[in-house]
Amino acid sequence: METIVSGIRPTGNLHLGNYFGAVKNFVRLQEQANCYFFIADYHSLTTHPHPDNLHKQVRQVLAEYLACGLDPEKCTLFIQSDLPETAELYMLLGMNAYVGELERCTSFKDKIRQQPDNINAGLFTYPVLMAADILIHKASKVPVGKDQQQHLEMTRQFANRFNRIYETDVFPEPEAYNFGNELVKVPGLDGSGKMGKSEGEGNAVFLFDEPEAILKKVKKAVTDSGPTEPNQPKAASIQNIFDLMNLVSQPETIQFFNEQYDACSIRYGDMKKQLAEDMIIFTTPYREKIKTLINDDAYLKKIALAGKEKARESASKTIKEVREIIGFRSF
Ligand code: TYM
Questions:
Q1: What residue ranges line ligand 1, CB within 6 angstroms?
Q2: Residues 170 and 312 both lie in one domain
Q3: pTM for this prediction
């Protein structure tokens, strides 16, 4: 059976990008593969969260995973920092990761721009930790959104290099995975790039957002002054609104607004209202489930403990093997 690994940083609540880029695939994959899904709390330290907030966010994402349909009976659901084996593998893989390749990583370059006062070593070696997460369970597939594609390529590179250096085949070369083949990129509401937690206020719609918050954010979404001639190509900001509709709205609704756009009679206000309504219909059942789960301390604790045990079983096997390969042998 195939092994699948993926994770999400608890730097904010789950947004529609996380859902459609990753979690939707997790829910399907748990039915057919040996899946390890985790909360990447080590990774979130690159932005220096307050200890109370860190724990609160880990709980929130755990409740959100469960609300989205991750079933601890079908997959291994755990918290990254519960696996010291990952930290060890991160250190070992780091010995064969080169400064040049880490410097070329696009997400590192983005972070330098986003947080110029906090360019820490954790940010720099972020892809190495991610590789450790994946390789510690010897995953062959990693369900992620398009923004993680380069990190996955680096993981393959590190796996391959380790195998070559030590003349072993201990690590498979994992592939980025989406059911529809193409990796998903969910746009944000600010007219530019992707939906994301660190892309600025109002850019992301969270599963946990109240209806009024969704309406307010969508109303503010960036648009243009409207088409001036029939069948005009759409500006990026408008294409974003259509792309978001594609995720949550009925095909007839999308067709209706496409026709209106092509006929130059589109009213963006109406379109946004419809998009907000469809997002609310989509997110409401999740929000309600999250609210119930987040208060169930005993259940969350039970899930986290069971996940930790299962994940460590697999992780400790790999680390034992790796130590032996490297040459750390007992006397
Ligand atoms: P993170 O926490 O930024 O995002 C979690 C998952 O959500 C996907 N995603 C998106 N997909 C499509 N469109 C978007 N706008 C969008 N925004 C987020 C991401 O692709 C990701 O799949 N480095 C990872 C966490 C991680 C990880 C791992 C993932 C740590 N170790 C090992 C896989 C395997 C991250 O920061 O994702």
A1: 5-9, 17-18, 21-22, 40, 43, 130, 133-134, 142, 144-145, 147-148, 151, 184-186, 194-196
A2: yes
A3: 0.96
